[in-house]
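Section 3.1 - Work completed
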Amino acid sequence: MQINKEHESKVIKEPMRMTQEKWIEHFNGEGMGMISAPNLYQTAKTGNKALIESLKQDLKDGVIMTSSQIRYNKKTLLAEIIHNVGSKFAKIKKYKIEIPVFNGDFEENRKTEKYLRAQFDTKDSLDKILKTLKKFGKEREIRLWTPNQHDRKKRPVRSVGLCFNGFGRFDVGGDVWFDSVEGLSRGVIIDSAKQSKKIRGESK
C-alpha cells in the first residue's frame, strides 16, 4: 500500500474538492483506493517525514476527506465505523462500537480510547494515539467531533474528515456530511491483482 505523495488536485493538474461520495466514485474509476483514517495514522506512525509534511499542507488548505465513514444509530450511541467504504480495490473493514458525543473537548478515558482505536484501526493506547497524531502538528490541540443524538437521527451517515482549524486546533471529525461537504483527498496504490488489471485497462 502506498499513499500518493500529492493530493489529487496536484496529481491531475486541476482543482478538485469533492464530497466523500464523489471521491469514492473517482478513485474507483482510477483503479485506486482512497486514503482512509488508518492510512493517515500509519503515515504518522511510520514517520515518513516528506509525506507527513505534504499531508500537513493539505490539513492547512482544507479538510482531508477520507474513505472512513460512520453510520450512527438514530436512537442510541451505537455506531458502525467503515474504512475504505465503497471501494472496489481496498479491503473494507468495519467496527461496531459505542461512540460518545464529542464537541471538541474529550476526556482521556476508556470510551475515548475505544473510539480512536476503531477510528484509526489500531491497538495502540490512547496516549500513543494522541502522541502519534501530534506528529502532524506538535503545537496543535487535538479536538474530537461527533454529532449529538438529535443530529444522528437527522443525518446518521457521516464521513471522517481531518483538518487544521483556527486557534491552533487539529480537528478530527466524525461528523462530516458525506454527500455535501467537500475536501481534498489522495489515492492509495494497493498491491492487488484487481487494481493491476484496472490500471492496465483490462477490466470493464
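Second construct:
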Amino acid sequence: MRALKLFVGLILALVAHFVLAAVVPEWAGVIDPFLLLIVFVALDGGVLGAVLAGCAVGLAQDAVTNGLFGVYGLAGTVVGFTAARSAQLLSLERLWFVALLFCLSAIVQQIVALVLIAFLIENSDLPALATLAARIVLAGFLGSLLVLLLSRLDQSLLQWRRNRQPRVRWGVGR
C-alpha cells in the first residue's frame, strides 16, 4: 500500500511540476513538489522506505529537469535518510516542527545538489541566494500546509466511516 501511495504521489508531483512549468515557468525552479513528496514519505519514520523513495523521486526529478542526471537522485536519498531519521528522533506534534523539518530538508537538498554541481561542472551557474531562500521558506510553508490538509482529510474520512449507517437492516417493519 505504501508503494501505491508513493506511486500516486510521484504522479501528482510530476503533474504539479509540469503544470507549474507551463503556467509560471520562473517559479518552477523555486517550488519543488518532489522534495515535498520525499519528506512526506519520510514522516512515517521508516528509514529504508524513505531512502528508496528519495532515490526514486530524485531520479524522476533528474529525468524531467534539464540538469546533470543523478544529482537530485543522490540529494533525494540523503534528504530521505535525514528526514526519516529526524522524524524518528523528534516529536513532530506541532505544525511548526513539521515546517522546520521541511525547511531543513530543503537546506540539505540544496547543499548536496550545489556541492555536486560545483564539483562536477566547470563554471557552473549557481542559483541566487534569494532563490535558495525562497525555495527553503516555500518548502516549509507548503510542506506544513500539505501535512495539515492531509491530516484533516484523514480525520474527516475516519469520522465519515464511523458515522456511516449500515446498509443492511435486520428487523421487522421494513
